[in-house]
Amino acid sequence: MSEVEEMIHEDALPGHESKLEPKPEWQPRYPGSGRLDGKVAIITGADSGIGRAVAALYAREGADIAIVYLSEDDDATETKRIVEAEGRRAITIRADVGIKEACDLIVEETITAFGHLDILVNNAGEQHPDKDITDISEQQLRRTFQTNIFGMFFMVQAARPHLTSGAAIVNCTSVTMYQGSKELLDYSSTKGAITAFTRSLSENLISEGIRVNAVAPGPIWTPLNPFGGASEEKLATFGEDTPIGRPGQPNEVAPSFLFLACEDSSYMSGQVLHPNGGIIVNG
């Protein structure tokens, strides 16, 4: 086994949605209106959670989807079935976005399959809770940054030659970037980097007609938390401290990703949307 393969996960992340109970709600909540007709999207981490919900909604709105995932073959196959049930085309690509060469291949396979690329959704991420900063190993620290922020750089670098005026990039940051998180020091740090990356990349690409925005979800019921080392005590009250009083569902976050990918947000770039249960972050 290679060093990279050994580093992949301490906590069996991102975890199988097929094994999660109760099941997250990914189903789009309304009929499509053709807002992404003819578009092609790459969605990283699309096998489960928020990524699956975004893939389902994008497909309903007319997009063909490249489903990028790390290792959960069964979940990726199910997301492909969901996209195809909406009448759209889908491919699954098993790859680690923390490896630059893998990102190059992701884009190459997408262009080969669909001929062009219009939307890049950087959603893949991992987290490893630790109560003390001294508990965070160098390996974990490097791996979390490698997946969460290096992967976004690598994906944008690979996609950039294929993105033209009208294209959109949507990154997934987090409420932890704005609030902080005492047990997710490395994870929340990457999310801060993602927000800065989003704003800077927007400035870099806006003159080319390419918009870059982000979504900062609050506590959302996906495999990331139960399979990411969260304690049973934390899971028992997960999301209850939000003003709405419950965790969000992936299909409550996906519309933010749709809005930022389509012409509805044509005058927005460098911005962050906050589907977080009513948490005020002033950011």
How would you explain this protein's 3D organization?
The protein has 283 residues and is α/β, with parallel strands linked by helices. The protein is built from 9 helices and 7 strands; from the N terminus they run H-E-H-E-H-E-H-E-H-E-H-H-E-H-H-E. It has helices at residues 3-7, 49-60, 73-85, 100-114, 138-159, 175-179, 185-205, 232-236, 250-261; strands spanning 40-44, 64-69, 90-94, 119-122, 168-172, 211-215, 272-273. Strands 3-2-1-4-5-6-7 form a 7-stranded parallel β-sheet, with helices on both faces. Helix 2 (49-60) packs across helix 9 (250-261), helix 4 (100-114) packs parallel to helix 5 and helix 5 runs parallel beside helix 7. The radius of gyration is 17 Å and the shape is globular. The termini are far apart. The model is unreliable at 1-11 (pLDDT under 50).
Specify the oligomeric state: single chain
Task: Give the low-pLDDT segments.
Answer: 1-11
Mean pLDDT rating: 91
By DSSP, the count of extended strands is 7
Topology pattern, helix = H, strand = E: HEHEHEHEHEHHEHHE
Strand content: 5-15%
Tally of individual helices: 9
> Which sheet architecture does the biggest sheet show?
7 strands, parallel
N- to C-terminal separation?
43 Å
* Spatial strand arrangement across the major sheet: 3-2-1-4-5-6-7
> Tell me, what's the shape?
globular
| Helix content range | 25-40%
Class based on secondary structure composition and strand pairing: alpha/beta
